[in-house]
Amino acid sequence: MSPITPPTFATLRKALLALAVAAPASLAAGAVLAPAVAALAEVPGQQRTQAPGFYRMAIGDFEITALFDGFIDRDRKYFVGVKSEDIIGLLDRMFLAERPEIQAAVNAYLVHTGTNLVLVDAGAAKSPGPTLGFIADNIRAAGYSPEQIDTVLVTHLHPDHANGLLRLDGSILFPNAEVRVAKAEFDFWLGGGAVAKAPAPLKPFFAMARAAVAPYEAAGKLKPYQPGDGLLPGVESVAAYGHTPGHSGYLFRSKEQSILLWGDTVHSHALQFAHPEVVIEFDVDKDETIASRRRLLAEAAALKLWVGGAHLPFPGIGHVRTEGDGYAWVPVEFGPIRSDR
Amino acid sequence: MSPITPPTFATLRKALLALAVAAPASLAAGAVLAPAVAALAEVPGQQRTQAPGFYRMAIGDFEITALFDGFIDRDRKYFVGVKSEDIIGLLDRMFLAERPEIQAAVNAYLVHTGTNLVLVDAGAAKSPGPTLGFIADNIRAAGYSPEQIDTVLVTHLHPDHANGLLRLDGSILFPNAEVRVAKAEFDFWLGGGAVAKAPAPLKPFFAMARAAVAPYEAAGKLKPYQPGDGLLPGVESVAAYGHTPGHSGYLFRSKEQSILLWGDTVHSHALQFAHPEVVIEFDVDKDETIASRRRLLAEAAALKLWVGGAHLPFPGIGHVRTEGDGYAWVPVEFGPIRSDR
To answer: For labelling, which of A55, A215, A303, B63 has a CA lying 20 to 30 Å from the CA of B307?
Structure first.
């Protein structure tokens, strides 16, 4: 060991705290603390771009590609069901309490089953703003094209899942795909009965849902399904009603492995694993939402299922374990595709 | 709500459990359960490639690029300090207990400070096997080239951090870089005194360390530093001795933000956050390793520091919080570079 006394971290702590209290511009980039050292190579500009938004894994013989559509900043006031100070405490525990908004990923999933190329949800398109609408780009980054997709399974007809079915000009983005959605979901948004009873802030969602699927319906490619209908080889729907009346997950299984792509069963990993009773204000039936979430969390934990969630931190894939009175989220570890585990 | 009874998850549970107990080949890909549906589009081949191994974020005006070198499967027997059944329990909690090996990422970090392009650690090169050695590829995928790097800060001279300094032919990979390493680290591995006393299984590490830096030393570009020496504007070394005698992290700070790239302070997120007393068999001084880990975990949690770790799941960036008698790891959420948080 070197006899020289190392700098203690307590020293750094003092320096950092001083910076946090009052950070004069001269301290930016450590100007005070470090000597100037001439760069040996010419320094290029910063890149400031992110890696492509896809992530791949294997489930048996199926290839799962998580696709990042972008993110939404959600005001924390939309989450209710526990005291607001508890919400802040739960966010702080995940280092998310500094800002009033909660960053929520918007994920979709492309599954190659060997016989089908299946997209689960289609993202938001650009309509909600410039931070979303990257599904088509990321399908291409992942080596596929929208034209190759034969089936789109929609978890529910909210705009951040269905608007991406269309290009910005309103034309069909997936010209060779059938769009499948639960019959209860189709009836609620397009049946005409529910919109009259909906609260005013939710009424625009009905027109958006109709617009998102109308070109597919006109082309005879919108196919509502009944619960229990077979969908594709190795693919079944899983009822997760409440958030919307037909909100459904999709269970993919190949050989001894399976993954449940559960849509919006959890809107916030920071809040709803620990407290499944937290709801989001636009859950259509809050009691049913909580019951569905509790049921799926319990089953996912008991079965050690792989799950994928539309608003969990990208890639949104991981496991659920019980923890205390609630649950905890265990995200997948990045790595190459390993079919050996 | 649709009056039709949805399939309950209990049904799926039964089906999945049946599959788990005895999975006949005919159940693969759900052949029994789903009808054949003709694909509407021609199904392309599976891609089976992973996304590029880089991840970007901002720390003040600094751009941080995490780089994935690959992974090592470590036998769990290398981790000691709690009972082996506790090790298995901790792994099971993270869904990692099914196999005897623990997948450990090997990460490096490229930091563009505005004045310098700094690499922290260089990965393993291909020497330990084909699952490693992707640092140069990922530097290029991230938009830079090895030639542009002016400084390599090495946390310690183990082969998975230093072998990547060279190409496979033994030539310098970073021709315009100075390589900086703590003097205590340099003295231990290259000084000649320690190798004689080292246990036989560790002796090859001395020759590897020497080989990794020799071409830089010959070119006058290997510059050991003393603790407290200024390194670069906004960059300081942080003592984390024990795993090796000069094992050091690097603290980068810009404006009011900072990130501590702490090398091997944690070898396994599943084990050592909850139980900092777990050591890995090749920690040179186990008591000092534990003391350093406890000190850095406590400070990282108290200061809510961003940290980046060489063997944490890629990108290895996140926060540490206290939890029970130990700590918990909170990984960064994927997203575009946001300078607003």
So the answer is: A55
Q: DSSP H helical segments within A191-319, as ranges? A: 193-197, 203-218, 269-272, 286-303
| Lowest mean pLDDT segment, chosen from A3-12, A20-29, A230-239, B246-255 | A20-29
Reference B199, options B77, B281, B80; nearest CA is B281
Amino acid at site A333: E
CB contacts of A223 in chain B (<8 Å) are: none
- CB under 8 Å to A179, separation ≥6 — which residues? A152, A154, A165, A213, A216, A221, A222, A223
Can you say whether residue B133 is alpha, beta or left, with left for phi > 0 and alpha for psi between -120 and 50 degrees?
A: left
The span from the CA of A298 to the CA of A322, in Å, is 8
Q: Map residue A64 onto helix, strand or coil.
A: strand
A7 and B237 in contact by Cβ < 8 A? Answer: yes
User: What does the pLDDT read at residue B290?
Assistant: 98
Question: What is the three-class DSSP state of A322?
Answer: strand
- B218 touches A at CB < 8 Å: no
CA distances (Å), A338 to each of A79, A279, B91, in order? 37, 36, 18
Phi, psi torsion values for B83, nearest 5 degrees: -60, 150
B314-336 pLDDT per residue, tens: 999 999 999 999 999 999 999 99
What secondary structure does DSSP assign to A155-212, as a single string? S---HHHHGGGB-TTS-BS-TT-EEEEEHHHHHHHHSSHHHHHS-GGGHHHHHHHHHH
A255: which residues sit within 8 A by CB, 6+ positions away?
A60, A61, B23, B28, B29
| A125 three-class SS | coil
Chain A segment 165-204 residues within 8 A of B by beta carbon are 176-178, 182-184, 187
Cα separation of B315 and A331, whole Å?
13
Of A328, A230, A226, give the one whose Cα is nearest residue A275.
Answer: A328
From CA B316, how far away is CA B329, in angstroms rounded? 10
CA dist B58 → A157, B41, B259 (Å): 35, 42, 10
Q: Which of B318, B316, B271, B315 is nearest to B293 (CA)?
A: B271
Q: Which domains does chain B have, with CATH numbers?
A: 55-331 (3.60.15.10)
pLDDT value of residue B341: 61
- Contact present, A188 and A194 (Cβ < 8 Å): yes
Interface confidence (ipTM) of the complex: 0.90
pLDDT, tens digit (0-9, with 9 covering 90-100), for B228-285:
999 999 999 999 999 999 999 999 999 999 999 999 999 999 999 999 999 999 999 9
Q: What beta strand segments (E) does chain B contain? A: 54-59, 62-75, 79-80, 101-112, 117-120, 151-153, 178-182, 222-225, 235-239, 248-254, 257-261, 279-280, 306-308, 317-323, 326-331
Tokens of B279: 């050591």
B-contacting residues in A 36-95 (Cβ below 8 Å):
36-37, 39-44, 46-56, 58, 60-63, 65, 68, 70-71, 93-95
**Sign of the alpha-carbon dihedral angle for A80, A85, A91, A97:** positive
- Facing residues of A64 across strands? A57, A111
